[in-house]
Design brief:
The structure holds three protein chains of three kinds. Chain A is α+β, with helices and mostly antiparallel strands. In chain A, 28% of the residues lie in helices and 24% in strands. The longest helix of chain A has 28 residues, at 544-571. Classes of the chains: A alpha+beta, B alpha+beta, C alpha+beta.
């Protein structure tokens, strides 16, 4: 019998009924009285160019066109669509060299898709037709697409303050030698018996959330700017929009619409500035801007591609003596997350193994690619692809078992986590490795695959990862919750935490119901209204259950305290002698002396005078709980992934047969949703490893910004999946829970690469590992599998 | 002609409407008739978010069809499947937590219903193959496949709507 | 940039083939024919424009699939890929075509897309087109002048070009009846299962025991149109199928194709795998024949 009533149960998702019937309102579904339609004119022909002529005259002749706005018609304030600038102090931001380098419309096209101007018309069709009639002439500029092209002398400088187009490097003032880690890695490396070292390339992957970005904005009769958007961070959007248009936050309202997937694509803001600017030109009229899939692709950020060098040193017995790494990220045309991703990419490296010494350098470079930004994993899959392959390369040389070595050398409780000084409070990675190895029959298969014949070759691979639950202490970790007790004892929980679809609202609901001893339907969540919701940094960094959940627990504790104080008066019993029994509070030694929480709440609101005593009945006042919660820890989860695959050595094609995904979850709050995160994450990790990358032509234009040519694993491609959740309640997580959001994507990347290595004896230094690369490598290595 | 008057049955209701000839069925449903449960995901028939059932059985991408050429046809959307309470597929999607962001869900429900009407006892392999035209970026598909398997247990008996539609049509033809 | 909204056009919806060919005779190049729309509508969202669209949606009688052991397979121009897949005769007698239909696009697209549309589109990546080339199909074209048949190998005249005159309507595809020991097979390579082919191939063999009497071999995504591989076919003619012969075949195939680098694969890769694909298809078709 579980100690909990709703925690740990796969209750129906709170939004499931609406979603299966298609009722939720995503931004594109909204239709309003008098609505106008905006179309942003984007530069599709060039990746880098100057606008030398902009002529609206033909567009304005089309009946139904209301206005066309160019760069001079909108605010000149620049901004950063990423959210990092709101998450660190101004001092740190200054040290990191963070930039606000984006503007609503531009005359300097820095990447294909940059916005030139915007058309407002009475229908989407007219807006599109008019947009096609806007005459723009360009003067092409030098195009550079990679960090190595960017830093070459003579290359066009994208930003005056950033020499050699280096957008960021670990700042000397915070990280001497522009490097972080521990020990002296150069010295330690000299002690190594064997050294493995290589240069890798990690790919530019797209989030591909199913809902293309769409927005509505309207300036109402009071001059208040309303914006309907599906951001992951509604309060950051609120703040950023108010600041951009120089308005008090009280004059800006963000209405959160249902979010059709995020995975990082909706961190910060995207096209809210353009939409709001259009709406401000036609006060009173709502303006809808709905992007095409192709447009969504080039205006929202992707994963950071980049060049990743790593060197590892080991003793003959496998002792890892030193690790050195340098990640040169391609941040694209604007700053966005140029500091955040190269910083954390090394954090995941630091958090994994007990190297004697470690030194990491992280940098990012501007280019004419579409901006990179946040994508589920935030640097972790990049590290996983490189680190886990190099580890296995060394283990082959040392003749050590990949599972056993990882059991011996992974970090655990008491070691420094990804952030130095924050120690791991819990770790079940060893158990994950053991259970996963058993599930995939590691030893048996490893032995079997040593003696294969024929053209089809199988392999097994393992990879481990650490992640985080919220970004404390690197970034602000703050969530505000209010809980209002209705007069019948049911509760309304107000929080700005958004639900991207992963089910955070269901879990937060469960946490509140459990804490207050209420049924699921006696709790409701008030979210998505910037007027009603207090601060929340937003749904990112696998934080919502962990930080939002703890904030709700804190607010519920506040409620319980007030209920107990009032019960104490009603029952004439000291608080310490009372028991909170869910909907009833009673005296520990005399349970019959009790009062329902509903009665306390009712009497607080309907606080009438008792006609017999002339005194009020009960304590007056509606009960509100409050929490302005700053996370105290980041309780990193761990995980181990095992993959079995088969390679057709005549064609290079890879078939994934099975993927066993283990996760150190602390406590599972909702098993079905946790599994859904792991399986869904795996689908994206598989994509990064095998099929997904944005490609550019020589002119810097994306050639596959569509589902036709950017291929993701589909229903029939997915391998047999097994998810193992290893439970060991964490001391800091809500009910012991750790995060599960980003973890599922990370470890499949390295596990697949290692399984390919196991099958062929070849490592692939560039992701994704396509059949083209596999077959070429087989031929180049002169391998014959007949 | 630039506009065409057509008869279109949507979610069981026969409509006489006039549509611009170049309007996709997706826009007819969403913009003209207000069935916003049918979603725009890619516009090129790759993602299946705009899937509808045509003539009560086959599925179709409404982004690649013109309403003006569907005179006399019948279209069912996810909302229509729930006109007498949830259908078995919809209930199974809830039970199996096969719903995350929900954007692909109406198309998934529509496609799954269509596949069960064609094949009430599909193997897992058949389910996975039939769902190839519907992209879900959240779930990794396992929960969706389980939901279809759950719904299959009560198909076709639970699919009362289909029976009604087939009976209505039989009546009309006789 | 593409669009969600199609350009304007005039729609014509004829009720009969004769009405349709009359309209074509009148409008010629000004009109495009709209059947399933799965190519045309996407093209129109990109950049394709046509003043007039003639929809075959209400045209009577062209949605048949008839098989006769003597006259072969007759497929009406409105028959969809989904119908091909559901047809037992196709599955039994023309496995290459059925296998192509089985992996063609997605179920939703198969509902709308017509087999004739796939041939008329003439994409070098067309899966059903590739199978039909190996099987040796003929396309029946009708105009106000009458009917004519064009062999499929003569039908595609270049990238996105075919032998249909602007006044003609494709009304039927005919595939000859298989002989007593005919086997066929289709295979394609893709990045993920739901995809356009990066390479596809199809083989039809008329066998006598283990001896190949004649072969038709087609390959797609390796030239401006789907190609036949005559030299490879000749290698097989009246030869016993042995591992040595298949090794020769695998070496010959790349000499007959001229692939390029594109979004889906590289020329180098296509050259490397083309022989393997055909070798495997021959094995499969030979097995099916016996």
């Amino acid at each position: 019998m579980s100690q909990f009533s709703v925690i740990g149960k796969s209750v129906p998702k709170v939004d499931a009924y609406e979603k299966v019937t298609g009722q939720p309102i995503y931004a594109a579904d909204l239709k309003m009285q008098g609505m106008l339609y905006g179309k942003i004119v984007r530069c599709m022909e060039f990746a880098h160019a100057k606008v030398i002529k902009l002529d609206f005259s033909e567009a304005l002749k089309i009946p139904g066109v209301v206005k066309v706005l160019g760069p001079e018609d909108v605010t000149q304030t620049t901004y950063n669509t990423g959210a990092c600038d709101e998450m660190v102090s101004d001092k740190v931001g200054h040290l990191l060299g963070d930039l606000k380098d984006q503007s609503i419309f531009t005359d300097h096209v820095r990447h294909q898709g940059d916005a030139i101007c915007g058309v407002i018309a009475i229908s989407e069709e007219i807006a599109e037709r008019a947009a096609a009639k806007v005459i723009v002439e360009y003067e092409p500029l030098q195009v550079f697409m990679t960090p190595s092209e960017a830093e070459k002398t003579g290359t066009h400088q994208l930003h005056p303050d950033k020499a050699n187009n280096m957008a960021f490097q670990l700042p000397e003032a915070m990280f001497p030698g522009n490097s972080y880690g521990w020990g002296d890695a150069d010295e330690a490396m000299k002690e190594a018996d064997i050294i493995v070292e290589d240069d890798f390339y990690v790919n530019k992957q797209k989030q591909c959330q199913m809902e293309p970005h769409a927005y509505i904005a309207q300036v109402d009769g009071r001059g208040r700017l309303n914006c309907w958007s599906s951001g992951q961070m509604p309060k950051i959007t609120h703040q950023k929009i108010a600041r951009l248009f120089n308005m008090p936050m009280s004059m800006v309202k963000i209405h959160s619409t249902t979010i059709g997937g995020g995975f990082g694509a909706r961190l910060g803001i995207i096209a809210e500035p353009e939409t709001c600017a259009l709406a401000m030109a036609v006060p009173g009229r709502p303006v809808k801007v709905q992007t095409l899939r192709e447009e969504d692709w080039i205006i929202s950020e992707s994963r950071h591609a980049g060049d990743y060098w790593m060197r590892l040193g080991f003793k003959k017995d496998g002792t890892p003596v030193a690790c050195q790494a340098r990640f040169k990220a391609n941040t694209g045309a604007y700053f966005t997350h140029a500091s955040g991703v190269p910083f954390t990419t090394g954090a995941w490296l630091s958090g994994m193994y007990k190297f004697g010494a470690l030194g990491y350098q992280g940098e990012s470079y501007f280019s004419n690619q579409a901006p990179a930004g946040a994508y589920r994993g935030y640097g972790n899959p990049q590290t996983n692809f490189v680190l886990e392959q190099l580890i296995d390369r060394a283990l082959t040389q040392l003749d050590l078992d990949p599972v056993q070595w990882r059991l011996n050398w992974h970090k655990g409780v008491g070691d420094d986590g990804w952030c130095f000084g924050v120690k791991y409070p819990s770790c079940q990675l060893s158990e994950c490795l053991k259970q996963g190895a058993e599930a995939i029959e590691w030893n048996k298969k490893l032995a079997e695959f040593k003696n294969q014949t024929g053209t089809k070759r199988r392999g097994v691979g393992v990879s481990v990862m650490n992640h985080t639950s919220g970004a404390m202490p690197m970034l602000l970790e703050h969530t505000v919750t209010t809980v209002m007790m209705n007069e019948d004892g049911s509760a309304v929980v107000a929080t700005a935490c958004s639900d991207l679809g992963q089910g955070s609202h269901t879990v937060l609901h469960q946490i509140a119901a459990e804490a207050l001893g209420l049924d699921m339907n006696e709790v409701t969540l008030k979210t998505g209204d910037s007027d009603a919701n207090g601060f929340d940094i937003g749904s990112h960094a696998s934080r919502t259950t962990y930080v939002g959940g703890n904030s709700i627990l804190e607010a519920c504790d506040d409620i319980k305290k007030q209920l107990l104080e009032r019960a104490s008066k009603h029952l004439d019993t000291a608080v310490e002698n009372l028991e909170f029994g869910g909907k009833t509070i009673f005296a520990k030694h005399n349970p019959e002396n009790s009062i329902t929480t509903a009665e306390i709440c009712r009497l607080g609101v309907y606080n009438y005078m008792d006609p017999e005593t002339g005194e009020p009945e009960g304590a007056p006042g509606q009960i509100f709980g409050f929490s302005s919660h700053f996370a105290k820890h980041n309780s990193p989860p761990f995980g181990a992934c095992f993959v079995e695959l088969e390679i057709d050595t005549e064609t290079g094609e890879i078939e994934l047969l099975e993927l066993v995904h283990t996760h150190d979850i602390g406590r599972t709050l909702h098993p079905a949703m946790a599994e859904g995160q792991m399986v869904g994450g795996a689908q994206q990790g598989i994509g990064m490893a095998l099929t997904e990358e944005i490609y550019y032509d020589e002119q810097g234009r994306a050639v596959n910004s569509s589902f036709t040519d950017y291929k993701m694993y589909g229903s029939s491609d997915m391998p047999k999946m097994k998810v193992i959740l290893v439970e060991d309640p964490d001391p800091h997580g809500p009910y012991g829970a750790k995060s599960v959001g980003e973890a599922g994507l990370t470890s499949p990347v390295g596990a697949i690469a290692n399984a390919v290595y196991n099958a062929l004896g070849i490592q692939f230094k560039e992701a994704p590992i396509t059949p083209e690369k596999v077959l070429k490598a087989i031929k180049e290595n002169g391998l014959n599998f007949a | 002609m630039k506009e065409r008057a057509i008869e279109l049955t949507v979610n069981g209701i026969a409509l006489n409407i006039t549509v611009p000839v170049h309007q996709t069925l997706l826009d007819t449903l969403r913009e003209q008739l207000g069935f916003t449960d049918t979603k725009y995901g890619c516009g090129t028939g790759e993602c299946g978010a705009c899937s509808v059932i045509i003539d009560d059985q086959e599925s179709l991408c409404s982004c690649m069809a013109l309403a003006s050429t569907l005179n006399g046809r019948s279209i069912t959307t996810a909302a229509g499947l729930a006109s007498n309470g949830l259908n078995a597929v919809q209930q199974a999607f809830i039970d199996q937590t096969a719903v995350q962001c929900g954007y692909c869900t109406p198309g998934m429900v529509v496609k799954s219903t269509s596949l069960l009407r064609k094949n009430p006892n599909p193997s897992e392999e058949e389910i996975r193959k039939e769902l190839e035209g519907n992209i879900c970026r959240c779930t990794g598909y396992d929960s969706i496949v389980k939901a279809v398997q759950q719904a299959a247990q009560s198909f076709p008996e639970s699919d009362t709507q289909w029976d009604n539609a087939v009976e209505l049509k039989a009546g009309a033809n006789s | 940039m593409s669009s969600r909204i199609l350009p304007n056009f005039d729609l014509l919806v004829p009720n009969s083939t004769s009405e349709a060919v009359n309209l074509l005779a009148h409008y010629q190049e000004r009109a495009a024919i709209l059947a399933g729309g799965t190519d045309l509508i996407v093209a129109m969202k990109m950049n394709y424009e046509s003043e007039i669209l003639i929809s075959v949606s209400e045209l009577d009688g062209l949605d048949y699939i008839d098989f006769d052991p003597n006259s072969g397979l007759h497929i009406g121009a409105k028959a969809t890929v989904s119908q091909i897949l559901d047809n037992a005769d196709v599955k039994q007698h023309y496995p290459a075509l059925w296998q192509a239909a089985n992996v063609f696009a997605t179920p939703q697209i198969r509902t709308a897309a017509t087999l004739a549309g796939n041939v008329l589109r003439g994409s070098p990546a067309g899966d059903c087109s590739c199978a039909l080339l190996a099987l040796g199909a003929r396309i029946v074209l009708q105009s106000t002048e009458g009917k004519r048949e064009v062999a499929i190998e003569d039908f595609w005249t270049g990238y996105n070009q075919n032998a249909r005159k602007p006044s003609e309507l494709a009304i039927e595809i005919i595939v000859d009846a298989p002989q007593s020991a005919t086997g066929s097979a289709f295979h394609r390579m893709t990045r993920v299962n739901e995809d356009l082919a990066k390479l596809n191939g199809s083989v039809r063999l008329d066998m006598d025991g283990n001896v190949c009497k004649s072969a038709r071999i087609a390959m797609g995504c390796v030239g401006p149109t789907t190609l036949r591989l005559p030299k490879t076919e000749k290698l097989l003619q009246n030869e016993e199928i042995t591992p040595e012969l298949l090794a020769h075949v695998a070496d010959m195939v790349p000499t007959e194709i001229s692939p390029i680098d594109d979004k889906r694969s590289t020329a180098e890769y296509r050259l490397m795998v083309s022989g393997v694909v055909i070798k495997r298809l021959i094995e499969q078709a030979a097995t099916a024949a016996n």
